[in-house]
Amino acid sequence: MDKHLKETRIDGELVYNGHFLKVQRDTIALPDGKHTAREFVLHPGAVVILPLLDDGTVLMERQYRYPLHQVFIEFPAGKIDHNEDPLASAKRELEEETGYTASEWQFVTKIHNAIAYSDEHLDLYLARGLKAGPQKLDEGEFLETFTATIDELLQWVREGKITDVKTVIGIFWLDKLRAGDWTL
User: Fold this and answer.
1) Residue 77 falls inside a structural domain
2) CA dihedral 88, 91, 97, 101 (to 10 degrees)
3) Does the keyword Ion transport apply (predicted)?
4) Which domain holds residue 70?
5) Per-residue pLDDT of the chain (184 residues; tens, 9 = 90+)
């Protein structure tokens, strides 16, 4: 199945080995037998938390993202540490970034946000039964939290105020869950 589309690795090398990201360059055989190269970012994977407060509002973050030199509105999120269970990562990231803990967790979906140049995946989790506590930000991490309604978030997506793909997808999931169109 799909053999007529499959690309096959011939060989490859790690061309950049950074603290967080790695870049791989592989020589591959195309479905027609010709050879070409593929370069892509190796990423450990990440989690995204959709923190829904008891009043129906959503806990959000504002954080400066250096590659694009601007502050973005995002869901709490973070990379999965080596050999870490994704749910444990989600719980850790929610508490570190926001100070909140949650009594209810549900897996929502897995997304691949940059399929043309990265193997990164993100596991989205819905967190409910939130309880406030102190933030435990990593050294060098600066962000602020705030709450918004799902309708406000949808409006900000329409207006282009929210462009982060993981956040846009998470907002659409929250809207579908709220409407009863989708279930977990």
Assistant:
1) yes
2) -160
3) no
4) 46-111+122-179
5) 899 999 999 999 999 999 999 999 999 999 999 999 999 999 999 999 999 999 999 999 999 999 999 999 999 999 999 999 999 999 999 999 999 999 999 999 999 999 999 999 999 999 999 999 999 998 899 999 999 999 999 999 999 999 999 999 999 999 999 999 999 9
What is the four-CA torsion angle of 23, 29, 31, 37, rounded to 10 degrees? 40
- 150: closest CA among 60, 24, 31? 60
Catalytic residue numbers read 139
Token duo for residue 166? 């993981």
Tokens 């973050």 locate to 61
Cα separation, 69 vs 109, whole angstroms: 29
CATH number at residue 96: 3.90.79.10
How many CA atoms, within 13 angstroms, populate the side-chain half-sphere of residue 20?
A: 6
